[in-house]
Design brief:
The protein is mainly alpha-helical. It contains seven helices and two strands, in the order ααααααββα.
């Protein structure tokens, strides 16, 4: 009677050239993909440590590195960053839990019950999920840009019209916001 130890066949050790041909290229593609995905995060982090705050002079490793931007944000009594951050986290968690509950109920109904329009609904969900939501930003901007009352608030202030760019995702220490804005948010 054969045992498991006798059935296991010793594998030959791969040569370096064979490993590169079979598996190595996957590692190279993975490293490239990860670095491509992480580069914007590294760029934003380095921009937040730059004391100049100039986009035109921004480098991956800034010349004037400092924590002044963070000190100004965290120590500003007129702009309570931690309260705003807590509010954003609470709203995001509530939104995620509500979406998960509604999505779970809808997915259960779509998977268990047979009804007219089920295939069309599933196909529509599939097609909508194929396109990232970022594609809708330009269309929404064009739709809303004609209105006179449109204002965009980003890290650098309140603007009549704005296109999403690096300034929307950067921690910037600016002058305190106007009093009317505190009641508007």
């Amino acid at each position: 009677m054969t045992t498991i130890e006798q059935v296991i066949v010793k594998e030959k050790r791969m040569t370096t050239s064979r490993w590169l041909r079979v598996l190595g290229w996957r590692h190279l593609v993975a490293i490239f993909s990860i670095s491509f995905a992480l580069f914007p995060l590294v760029w934003m982090a380095s921009a937040s440590f730059d004391q100049l705050g100039l986009v035109s002079a921004q480098k991956l490793i800034p010349d004037n590195i400092g924590l002044d931007n963070y000190r100004k944000i965290f120590n500003n009594p007129e702009a309570p960053y931690f309260i705003w951050y807590r509010n954003a986290v609470v709203i995001s968690l509530a939104n995620a839990l509500l979406q998960m509950a509604i999505g779970a109920c809808a997915s259960y109904a779509l998977s268990r019950f047979r009804f007219q329009g089920r295939k069309v609904t599933l196909l529509t969900i599939l097609v909508v999920q194929m396109f990232p939501q970022l594609l809708s930003v330009t269309a929404l901007f064009v739709l809303l840009a004609g209105k006179d009352s449109l204002h965009w608030l980003n890290a650098e202030g309140l603007f009549d019209r704005d296109i999403a760019d690096h300034g929307d995702f950067k921690i910037v220490a600016t002058t305190p916001t106007p009093k009317w804005l505190h009641s508007a948010i």
